[in-house]
Amino acid sequence: MPDQSLTPDWPASVHPPGSDSFEQTALVWLFDHVPADYRLHGVLRRHPVALSRLALQYVTAALEAAREGYRTARVDLRDHLPPHALDQVMNAYLAEGQRTAALLRSIEAVDAALREAAAGRADDT
User: Fold this and answer.
1) In the chain, what percentage of residues exceed pLDDT 70?
2) At the top level of its lineage, which domain of life is listed (predicted)?
């Protein structure tokens, strides 16, 4: 029976854990959030938990890059942009940081469910 108590961070397009299509919808969603070349690796299709781990690392790095960019943009760009443009850059960093942090929380939720599913299969062997 699928678990219907999903967190608010659960992505809408990923079916609930325990459903027949959970892992397939998780794969499709995760592949949408990593570089396209990740699709070239069959092991990531065969083992969704491996893809979720790579996605976690990729999006964590992107979030850290956005945070670093936000911390350093004013100093780095002050001689190259007018003040209003610099404010817009800061707003872009802030918005992207918030979006990426929300994406990371969703990936963490999917990763935890994939790990649980993989552990359940390991217990069956």
Assistant:
1) 94
2) Bacteria
